[in-house]
Hints:
Aldehyde Dehydrogenase, Chain A, domain 1; alpha/beta; Aldehyde Dehydrogenase, Chain A, domain 2; 17 helices; globular; six-stranded mixed β-sheet; single chain; seven-stranded mixed β-sheet
Amino acid sequence: MTSLEVRFPLSSVSSASPLSVDRLLAEVSEEPVDGRLVVGDERVRDFLVAFSRRLLKPDLARRHPELGSLGFFLRKAELARAVERLGDRPGSRRSPRGLVLHFPPANVDTIFVYSWALSALAGNHNIVRVSARSAGAAETVLEALNDVLADAHPAIAQTQRMITYDRDEATTAALIGACDLRVLWGGDASVNALRQHPVRPLTRDLAFPDRSSFATISVPGWQAATPAQRRAAADGFANDLYWFDQAACSSPRDLFWVGDAAAAQVARTEFADLLAEVVAQRGWVVDPAMAVEKYVSTYGLAATGAATRVAFAGNAVANVELSGLDDLQRHWLGAGTICHITIGSLAELAPAIQRKDQTLSQFGFTMPELDDFVTTLAGRGIDRIVPFGQALTFAGIWDGFDLLHEFTRIITIQA
C-alpha cells in the first residue's frame, strides 16, 4: 500500500513523515484524553467558529470570494441552529456514527469542508481524502484550518485527518473497510468504483453522484422587476454560472424562459446585456483551451439539430438556443455556456425532469407558483429550488438528505 500525506493537522506527529494506513487508523480512532466527542460537541464548535472567522477575513475574501459562503455556513449561530434542529426527543438520543470516511470531488475544491464540518459537529472521527489535483481554494482552506489549530482543543487534532495519497486500490480498500459511514462524491463511475470495495455489515453509504441543474426566469416576473432587481438577478446568475467553472452539480446548464415568447425575447436581450456587463466588470475570463471546448461542444449541438442557434460574446459567454425540451443539456459544455429554451409554463417543464436533476435556480416566481410546480413534479426530480445567486450555496440539506441526521444514529430509551 502507498504511504499517505497528512494535510491536516500539520501539527500532528503523523505529519512529520509519510504515514501508513494502519497507523492512521490507529491514531484517528483513539479517544480524546478528556472524553469522547458527542453530538454538538463544544470543542468542535469552538474550532469551527474560529475557522469561520478566518475565512471571513478580508484577505481571504478578496482572493476566494466563494469561501465567504463557507464562512457564513460555519458561524456560531448557524452551528447552534443546526444542532437545535437535530434535537433529541423524549425517549431517544442522537449519537455519532463513529469513523466517517469522505471522498470529495476534485472539480469543486471546497465541498469536502461542508460534509466534514457537519460530520465533526455530529461528534464523528473523520478521514477526508483530498485530491492531489485540488488547488487554489482547497489549499487556502487547508492553510486556514492549520492556522487556527494552534488555539484549538487537542481533541480536534486527535480525531480529524485530511490526507492525500496516490491512487491505490489497496489503500482505499483498507480505509473503506474500517469506516462506519462512507461519503462518496463525484461522477457515477467514481461512486460505483468506490462501492466495489466491501464494507463492514453495519457501514452505511451517503452518495452524491452525477447531478444536473437548471435555471428559470418568469417573463412576467422580469417585466415587473425594477432595474435594480434585474441587475441583481444578472449578478447572482453570474455567480452561479462561473464559480467552479460551471462544473459543480448545482451549476445551471439550461435557462428556461417561462411566459409569452415575444416578451421572453425582449427580456433575454436585456438579460444578456446585463450579464455581459457583470462579467466584464468582474474581469472574468475563460481560458482559451476551455473556450475551444465550448466552441466544439456548442457547434456540435447545432450539427445534430439539438441547437438552432449559437452565439458567442467573446470567450466568456456562449448562448445556445435549444430546439426543445427533448434536447436539454445535462452534461458540461464549458464554462459560461447557457442553453436557452422558452416555454409557456412551469408545468410544461415537469415531464422533462429526471431523478438526477438537482437544483432549479429561479427569478421572478411567487411561492405559490413554485409550490404548484413541486406538486406537478410528483417526485420526478429536483431537490432544491433557490433564488439566483444561491445555486452554489451549500446547505445542511443537500440532494434531499439532512446531512446532520445522516451523520448520527438514534438510540431509543425506555425505562
